[in-house]
Automatic annotation (TrEMBL):
The lineage of its organism: Bacteria, Bacillati, Bacillota, Bacilli, Lactobacillales. The keyword Cytoplasm does not apply. This is Acetyltransferase, GNAT family. Residues 3-160 form the N-acetyltransferase domain. Keywords: Acyltransferase, Transferase.
Length: 162
């Protein structure tokens, strides 16, 4: 399988909505409106992985730049454009289709987001993750070669800064 990493396009909306819905067990209707806003407001920090053979999106990551260090709930519901003066890159989601997992796609998505954050002058990357994914995120700090990754562990009410 040959895959392509690229920024999102409006035509990706149905596939992105399906992928996000399956990954986070949310209704497609709930997700669609937010995804439209994200695609329109921060397409430069909304990356997708396309299977070149099928043309299908098999993974994505997205998040806005933000002026504050930590992810706030409002970021999931209000889609504001990225601003050059924002110093922190948020990552609101990383999702990969089940049959494409364990192939390095999520790691590559995060690396590519880190490259974008560096080019845009961001000071750190902030994300949340489920406790069961903590083992995956910790080594990413070394791989992403960014100054800091701020990880809020969901349901454990912890904040870890690497």
């Amino acid at each position: 399988m040959k895959i392509i990493y690229r920024t999102v396009q409006r035509a990706d909306l149905p596939m992105v909505v399906s992928l996000e819905s399956a990954a986070f067990h949310m209704s497609k209707e709930m997700i669609k409106k937010d995804m439209v806003g994200r695609i329109e407001n921060y397409p430069d920090t909304f990356l997708v992985v396309e299977d070149e053979e099928t043309g299908k999106v098999v993974g994505h990551t997205f998040g806005p730049a933000f002026s504050k260090r930590y992810i706030e709930d409002e970021l999931y519901f209000r889609n504001n454009p990225n601003h050059s003066e924002d110093k922190y890159q948020m990552i609101l989601s990383v999702a990969v289709a089940p049959k494409h997992r364990h192939q390095g796609i999520a790691s590559n998505l995060l690396n590519k987001m880190a490259e974008i954050a560096k080019k845009q002058g961001r000071k750190a990357i902030s994300l949340t993750c489920y406790p069961e994914l903590f083992h995956f995120m910790r080594p990413m700090v070394l791989l992403m070669k960014v100054k800091h990754i701020i990880c809020r562990i969901l349901m454990a009410n912890k904040v870890i800064i690497w």
